[in-house]
Amino acid sequence: MSNTSNVVVFSLFGLNETTNYRTVVFSLTLLCYCVILVVNVFLILTIILDENLHEPMYIFLCGLCINGLYGTTGFYPKFLFDLLSHTHVITYVGCLLQIFTIYSSATADFTILAVMAYDRYVAICRPLEYQSFMTKHRIAMLVCLSWLIPMICQVMVVTLTSTLELCGTRIEKLYCENWSVVKLACSTTTVNNVVGLIVVSFYLGHDVFIVCSYVQLIKSSLKSKEGRRKFMQTCVPHLLCLLNVTAALLFDVMYVRYGSKSVAQRIKNFMSIQFLMIPPIINPIIYGLKLTKIRKRIISLFMMMGQKFR
Fold first, then answer.
1. pLDDT single digits (tens) 174-223
2. Per the count of CB atoms within 10 A, which of 3, 34, 135, 231 is most buried?
């Protein structure tokens, strides 16, 4: 850390394009953040308060929504403050904390989706063993691992970044991102590059695991009408969420490393925050509409609210 003691703050230059329409961007961002808070908190409370939803799949879904709230908290409050400010800076420690929060949440999405795929595999391919296999102890262990592994990975990444000697403070993004800080290093970053690629490959491995499990799921579900029904109700929303998270995050990771500098700043801004906007909104909506038990519970809640206001 002594090598970086001269760096006190970083300057975020991604907001320079929004000077002329800052009020509009602030209003839309605040609306987006409010929607994220409402849909995720609503789904979390629905699952917690309804004992009929205390099943492994819904518990993992609750974890996915909590993770969405955790990750967006690392971006939206600071971004909204910057939109109202004339200086867009972040402290060195704050920058590392933001990197850890945003990317531990993003990678936790992959781990949770992998756990959910495993749960669906056991439920559909080994239904007679499901109740005895998915015990409370195993569910708790899977939930803990889905958070612990991403955090360990990001602690390792951020720790390596914190040891670099930096020769600049200019970050061409709306928020702190690990590779943007690594590019400011005066010394060699080979270790950071290798570890970063290992982490990316590790989470791409999650995708491979999920795809392989779904190949088995499809084979099993085609054998019976009940299997096809379960697959359509519980697996299709899972696949949609996986594609959504993978496309958004992979594009951000690859673009920051290999993207063209000639692309307009406003386009780069949108590309860099799409995984902080789209998945946290879409995931709970997809599951809320597609999963029968949750959909029925939500409809009943709205009907009860409607009767109270009559």
1. 899 888 898 898 888 889 889 988 988 898 888 888 888 888 877 777 77
2. 231
- Residue among 166, 158, 172 nearest 11 (CA): 172
Report pLDDT digits (tens) over 86-105.
Answer: 888 999 999 999 999 999 99
* 305: β partners: none
Compute how many other C-beta atoms are within 10 angstroms of the C-beta atom of residue 151: 14
Q: Which residues have C-beta within 8 Å of that of residue 191, sequence separation ≥ 6?
A: 160
Residue 99 and residue 154: Cα distance in Å, rounded? Answer: 8
- State in Å, rounded, how far the first CA of the chain is from the last one: 63
Query: Encoding tokens for residue 133?
Result: 């296999």
Query: Look-up: residue for tokens 């000697």?
Result: 165
Instruction: Produce one character per residue of 85-99: b if its CB has 16 or more CB atoms within 10 Å, e if not.
Output: eeebebebeebbebb
pTM: 0.85
Give me 151's structure tokens.
């955090």
**Contact by Cβ (8 Å): 53, 297:** yes
Q: How far apart are CA 252 and CA 125, in angstroms?
A: 35
* Token reading at 258: 């290999």
**Sequence-ordered strand ranges (E) for the chain:** 9-12, 89-91, 170-171
Pairing of strands 89-91, 170-171: unpaired
12 bridge partner residues: 171
Instruction: Classify burial at 187, counting beta carbons within 10 Å of its beta carbon; exposed 0-12, middle 13-18, buried 19 or more.
Output: exposed
Closest CA to 117 of 240, 228, 222, 224: 240
Residue 264 phi, psi (nearest 5): -60, 145
Closest CA to 238 of 207, 216, 274: 207
